[in-house]
Structures are given as C-alpha cells and as structure tokens.
From TrEMBL, chain A:
The keyword Endoplasmic reticulum does not apply. Gene3D superfamilies: MetI-like (1.10.3720.10). One of its GO terms (biological process) is phosphate ion transmembrane transport. Belongs to the binding-protein-dependent transport system permease family. CysTW subfamily. It comes from Flavobacterium yafengii. This is Phosphate transport system permease protein PstA. One of its GO terms (cellular component) is plasma membrane. The gene is pstA. One of its GO terms (molecular function) is phosphate transmembrane transporter activity.
From TrEMBL, chain B:
Its main location: membrane. This is Phosphate ABC transporter ATP-binding protein. Transmembrane segments: none annotated. Keywords: ATP-binding, Cell membrane, Membrane, Nucleotide-binding, Phosphate transport, Translocase, Transport. GO terms for cellular component: plasma membrane. The keyword Disulfide bond does not apply. It is found in: Cell inner membrane. It is a peripheral membrane protein. The keyword Cell membrane applies. Residues 4-245 form the ABC transporter domain. Part of the ABC transporter complex PstSACB involved in phosphate import. Responsible for energy coupling to the transport system. One of its GO terms (molecular function) is ATP binding. It comes from Flavobacterium rhamnosiphilum. One of its GO terms (biological process) is phosphate ion transmembrane transport.
Length: 292, 250
C-alpha cells in the first residue's frame, strides 16, 4: 500500500469518527427532550380534563382544577411583555442604530450582559423591595409582571440587537442615500426587515416568563387563591409556583402528585402553543415585509 | 463653473490615511470614471460626494468639496438635501424588500411627497427612464426580489432617479452583473449623461473607456492622473497609469 492511499484512508476514517460523534451527541439531545416530554405526558395525561383546566382547585389542591393558575400565568406573560417588549426593542434600536462605537456603547452592552446573568431569585428580591414595598404595589400582578419584565429585558434587547445587526448595511445606505433621515431609515426600512426575527425574541421571553418561579415568589404568587384576579393589584396563582407548592408543601403531596404532572403538562403546552403562534407570526410578517 | 469641485482632500479612517491631497473637478452632464486597484481610495472619494462616509465612525476629512458652488461639509449643510441632489447606486443591487412600485416610491415618500398622482407619475417615468417599464409594468405590486440581478440594478437606478437628483454616483454598478445586463446599464449611463452628472467607480477598463468622458486614476490614495478618457487610454502622461491600464499591475 502506497503512502497516499494510506493517508486517504486515514482521512476518511477520521472524518467518519468525527461525524459519528456529532451525530451521536445531537441525537442524544433530541432523545433526552423526547424522554422528558413523554415522561410528563404519560404521568400527567390522566388528570387532564375539561374540569382540570377550567375549575378552581378543591380539597387542599388535591382535587379540582388549575384554572386560576393558568389565568395567572397568562396575565403575567402578557403584563411582562407589555413592559419588556417596547422598552427592550427601543433600547436595542438606540444601541444599534444611534450610539456610536465607543466607551458608552461598551458600558451599555456590558451592563445588559450582566443583567442577563443575574440569578432570577435576585430579581425576585429586587422586585419585592422596589415594586411591592417601596412603590407600594403590594403582592400583585403589577409587581410580578414588572419583575418578570426586568428579568427578560436583556433577552429582548439582545435578540433585537442581533436582528438589527443582521440587516444588511446596504439597505441603510440606500435609504440614507435617497435623502431619508436616520429615523425614517430605521422605522421604514431597517425595523420592518428585522421584525420577523425580533418576534423570535418574543418567543424566547414568553417561554422564559411562563416558566419562572423565583421572581414571582415574593411579588405576586399566591399559595392558594381559588378566584380570578380582577385588577392588576390583585395577587394571583401561577403555574410554576403552583407546581412547586403541590409538589413540596401541599396538604397531601402524594395525593396531588398526578395534579403536579398535569400542571407541568399544561405549562409545557402553553409554551408550545405560544412558540407555534409566534413562529406563524414570524412567517407571516416575513412574507409581508417583502411585499409592502 | 464646475458641477463638483474638490480641493486638497485628505481623508482618514482612524489613523490610516485613505486619500492624499486629492483635487478633482467635474463638469456638468459628463461621465467621470474613477479607476485604480482595490484600496486605492476611489470608492472612498466617491462616498465623500454624498457624505456616505459620515456613517463610519472615527473618520477625518480636510479640504473642501463644493457641489454647485456650495461647501457640502459646511456646518449649515443639510445632509438629507445633499443626498437628494446626489443620488447613489451601489455595487450589489440592493432593492428594499418591498414591492417594485414601493421601491421607487420610497424616496419620494420620505422626502415629503404625499400626492399619490405625483408619486405614481414619477414612479412610472423613472422606471421608463431605465428601460424597465416593459418588463415590470404588469407586476408592480410584486416583490422586487423576484427580478433578475440586472433588472434589480436598473430598478435601483430608477429609485435614485425618482427624486430627481442632478448628480448620480455609481459604485461599481455592474460588478455583480452578467455581460448582457452590464451592457444595458452602460447604454443607460450613456443616455442619462444628457441630464445628469455621473461619477462612476469601475474595475473594468473597457467600461471606463466606453462610458466616460474623463477618467481619474487613483493609486494608494493619490490621484495620479486625471484627463480626458481618450487621452488616459491612448497616451497617459504617467508611467503608473500606463502600467495599470495595460494590465501590468493592479
């Protein structure tokens, strides 16, 4: 066997091994996800019924449904988005389109990254100190939404910034070259192009908000509250906290085990639906932007 | 009076000096080609004329550029108005992700024209001017991305013409196009010359020879030679120019 053939064989073998490893790891990830999901589905599907998602909890949360927790979580998602989305998007536009490269931009960037790294329980404490106590909102949807909003703000800012960055500079130049102002260029050309991707930021933050427990612990979540909130100053139940409560400190943990899995399943389904919805929106706007 | 007049231009990107003492003037309704090897400063010079280099941070300019007698880098210059008068066509066709119609209408709308009739009229005239009307008249509402590269570039020229500039800057407008599309654009340049002052950066010697009246040869940030295109291509006075256009370097 000549040297060349041996080398060629070796190259092919190395490639096979490398790709084999990549394939294995990626399949493992998919497999793990599948295992987790099916575990939750198998354990939780038995309690899912119309009553479960539409009724108040009963008998020390071992019976009845989780309706107030579903509503609470939806309110929190909505409330935090109303706050985080405009603020985050505007901040990102300012940072990406207006601030010149320099120390100011570096500082803002670094701060945003640091904010993203703060543990969620710290946000919870901060939310309690500021919104609940200092601003006297009390334990309320408002305080909880604002705290969650702060938590996802860096996610929104970062994804918006990335989407704006991915807009080709020649579009900006073409617009400015036609005598458009910077604001016209940003609002009529850059933002519409980036918008479908900005939606992705919304998807990520909805998933994050609906699953967080620590930030709502001291700001909004009620242990047991069998009625729906009527104003933004009301306390509310929420799915992740409810899950935590009936798994650790319920009146009868064994009896409510199935309810816990059911709650987890509902939480996952809500995240899934919002992802699908946001994906559909992204596709819709992606198509629309080309035509207007 | 010259339409464009630049005197002793020095331009820096940070510490790097990109243009050295360039003085160059262009007459109305002529085509001037800027040629030279990559990195010679010709695109940088072109982008000074509509202040596109303002978009880059950490740059410095000395010297003066007068357009129609006005110092375009004066404190009271309105950059938006300048860019309205000095249109630009880019290297890669870059229509907006909008419909064909909206691409051309955009410049009118951002400049405050709201009368739909006027907009429609100007859109049609501009598309006709670039000889694209026959090809797109039935699909004005379709996305501009559905057009071929050559058609997109002509649409970009129409977009620039719609706001009625008097100067047109073209930064290697055919470098991304096939030969047929290229010759269409060249024909167009030839026709537009009657109404516009055109400055075109090109890497294509034949193109410079075909479309331009005067040619400026840049090398390492300096203007080496500037003369009638015919003279530059037949008996250039500088050795470097001759070496470049005969393909000995660059």
């Amino acid at each position: 066997m000549t040297k060349e053939i041996r080398l060629a064989k070796q190259k092919r073998r190395n490639q096979k091994i490398a790709f084999g490893v990549f394939q294995f790891t990626s399949y493992t990830v998919v497999g793990l996800l599948f295992v987790i999901l099916s575990f939750i589905v198998i354990k939780g599907i038995s309690v899912i019924s119309w009553e479960f998602i539409s009724a108040m909890p009963k008998e020390g949360m071992t019976q009845g449904g989780i309706f107030p927790a579903i509503v609470g979580t939806l309110c929190l998602v909505f409330g935090s988005m109303i706050f985080a989305f405009p603020v985050g998007v505007l901040a990102a536009i300012y940072m990406n389109e207006y601030v010149k490269d320099g120390w100011m931009k570096k500082i803002i960037k670094q701060m945003t990254n640091n904010l993203a790294g703060v543990p969620s329980i710290v946000f919870g404490l901060f939310g309690m100190a500021l919104f609940v106590n200092k601003l006297e909102f009390g334990d309320s949807l408002l305080a909880g939404s604002l705290t969650l909003g702060l938590l996802v703000l860096p996610v929104v800012i970062r994804t918006t910034e990335e989407s704006l960055k991915s807009v080709d500079d020649t579009f900006r130049q073409a617009s400015l070259g036609l005598g458009a102002s910077k604001w016209q260029t940003t609002s009529k050309v850059v933002f519409p192009i980036a918008f479908p991707n900005i939606i992705t930021g919304l998807i990520l933050s909805i998933g994050r908000v609906s699953g967080e427990t620590a930030p709502i612990l001291f700001t909004v979540a009620a242990y047991f509250l069998p009625k729906l909130p009527t104003s933004i100053f009301d306390q509310a139940m929420a799915l992740p906290y409810h899950l935590y409560v009936i798994s650790t400190s319920g009146t009868n943990i064994e009896a409510s085990r199935a309810m816990a899995y059911g709650t987890a399943l509902v939480l996952i389904i809500i995240v899934l639906i919002s992802n699908l919805l946001a994906n559909a929106l992204r596709k819709y706007f992606g198509k629309k932007v080309k035509m207007n | 009076m010259h339409k464009i007049e630049s005197k002793n231009i020095n331009f820096y990107y940070g510490e790097t000096q990109a243009l050295h003492d360039v003085s160059l003037s262009m007459k109305e309704n002529t085509v001037t080609a800027l040629i030279g090897p990559s990195g010679c400063g010709k695109s940088t010079y072109l982008r000074l004329l509509n202040r596109m280099n303002d978009l880059i941070d950490n740059t410095k300019l000395t010297g003066t550029i007068l357009i129609e007698g006005e110092d375009i880098y004066a404190k009271n210059t309105n950059v938006d108005d300048l860019r309205k008068n000095v249109g630009m066509v880019f290297q890669k066709p870059n229509p907006f992700p909008k419909s064909i119609y909206e691409n051309v209408a955009y410049g009118l709308k951002v400049n405050g024209i709201t009368d739909k009739k006027i907009i429609e009229e100007r859109v049609i005239t501009s598309i006709e001017q670039v000889a694209l009307w026959g090809e797109v008249k039935d699909k004005l509402k379709k996305s501009a991305f559905e057009l071929s590269g050559g058609q997109q570039q002509r649409l970009c020229i129409a977009r620039a013409l719609a706001i009625q500039p008097s100067i047109l800057l073209m930064d290697e407008p055919t470098s991304a196009l096939d030969p047929i599309s290229t010759s269409k654009i060249e024909e167009l340049i030839y026709e537009l010359k009657n109404k516009y002052t055109i400055v075109i950066v090109t890497h294509n010697m034949q193109q410079a020879g075909r479309v331009s009246d005067t040619t400026a040869f840049f090398y390492m940030g300096e203007l080496i030679e500037y003369d009638k295109t015919k003279t530059i291509f037949t008996k250039p006075s500088q050795k470097q120019t001759e070496d470049y256009i005969t393909g000995r370097f660059g």
